[in-house]
Design brief:
This protein folds into three domains: 51 residues, no CATH class; 89 residues, DNA polymerase, domain 1 (Orthogonal Bundle), CATH 1.10.150; 166 residues, hpI Integrase, Chain A, CATH 1.10.443.10. Helix content is 53%, strand content 6%. The model has no long low-confidence stretch (mean pLDDT 86).
Length: 372
């Protein structure tokens, strides 16, 4: 047995310690040799300041556990962990929070990083996700910032729980929440575009017509399969929630004008899993990225007709809303077709189109005094 004293910071005095490992060595010569080596090691540690401090030991143990968590907790598990915590808190914005984290998790699975250690997620990953949100899901302005806000909060919760040490989303900038480029096509512009696409790109025209009559977004139409048409009602297009921007399923009315296009294209007769707008805007089995469709429309149509960058493929959705609004279609009907969850978000969209009017200012604005 080896006896020695170490300083105990908890009691403020020396503490006798015993090492009994040598007792397991039966040969006396070997035991003495082992003890000489062990005593030299103990003396070396004592010279370095070896002492007993339970608080420090506890802190070291906690850091060891956190280090294991950082090294082994997968990204997908970390997202699930935070979602469980947030659901328990019953915060008001839990639905939007869940949507943002669900989309983040789906994106991570899509690019194959769902099993990465949460501690290895870098700013580049978050930047790539925000680029995906902007391009693939037609998210911009306030919605873009909300996604970024939710992702930042995800990592903040993990920091608070001491699972990670830094927030990879911290230095990614928010976007300006301005009115933006929500420009609709005038009647003359529509005529010019339709004539050009009818002659050159009839399949792109069909894509634009679907957007105009359904008020669907580019990403939603890109995911559209033949079975969506009349899935539950022959006069409606079913949009599954996993492909909807706001995570809500939608039953979209098919106006008679669109039904004629559907019949002309033969979409109801296609195999159910056929994408209506695959490569080259033709139907096929391969899903294309919405960004590719938008870029081709820009290059093949708008650029050739010298339209400014303020106009995009998405302008066909804006055009549909504008013309419905100006034809006195009730706001509730437009909102349901377009898939806005509440009046507040829809009114913000109408304002961005310059359509939200304060009628009281027109009818009741007090006049300035007139000089005779």
């Amino acid at each position: 047995m080896i006896k020695f004293y170490v300083w105990n910071a908890d009691t403020g005095r020396k503490q006798l310690c015993r090492n009994l490992e040598c007792n397991a060595i039966t040969n006396l010569a070997d035991r003495k040799k082992w003890c000489r080596i062990k005593i030299a090691e103990i003396n070396q540690e004592l010279l370095k300041g070896w002492h007993i401090d339970s608080k420090k030991l506890q802190a070291l143990e906690q850091e060891r556990i956190r280090s294991q968590q950082r090294n082994f907790m997968k990204l997908s598990d970390a997202i699930d962990l935070v979602l469980v915590q947030k659901r328990g808190e019953k915060i008001k914005s839990i639905r939007n929070y869940e949507i943002a984290l669900r989309v983040f998790k789906e994106w991570a699975s899509l690019i194959g990083i769902q099993n990465l250690s949460i501690d290895s997620i870098k700013r580049d990953h978050i930047t790539a996700f925000m680029e995906y949100i902007s391009a693939e899901r037609d998210v911009a302005g306030r919605a873009y910032n909300n996604y970024l806000r939710h992702i930042r909060h995800l990592f903040k919760v993990l920091i608070d729980r001491e699972i990670i040490l830094r927030n990879p989303a911290d230095k990614i900038n928010y976007r300006n929440q301005t009115v933006g480029r929500n420009l609709a096509y005038t009647v003359d512009q529509q005529t010019e575009l339709i004539k050009f696409m009818t002659d050159k790109y009839p399949n792109i025209l069909a894509f634009c017509q679907v957007m105009y009559y359904t008020l669907m977004r580019t990403g939603e139409i890109t995911n559209m399969q033949a079975w969506w048409i009349g899935a539950y009602d022959k006069n409606k297009i079913y949009l599954p929630k996993e492909f909807s921007k706001n995570g809500d399923e939608r039953h979209i009315t098919i106006p008679p004008q669109l039904e004629k296009i559907i019949a002309k294209m033969g979409w109801r007769n296609l195999p159910p899993d056929t994408y209506l707008f695959s490569s080259g805007f033709r139907h096929g089995t391969k899903k294309m990225q919405s960004r590719m469709h938008a870029n081709k429309y820009r290059r093949w149509v708008l650029d050739k007709l010298a339209f400014s960058k303020d106009y995009t493929m998405y302008s066909w959705k804006h055009t549909g809303v504008v013309f419905l609004y100006r034809n006195d279609i009730p706001r509730a009907s437009i909102r349901m077709q377009a898939g806005f969850r509440d009046d507040k978000s829809f009114e913000a969209y109408l304002k961005s189109l310059g359509l939200f009017e304060n009628s009281l200012l027109i009818t009741s604005y007090p006049s300035m005094p007139e000089y005779p």
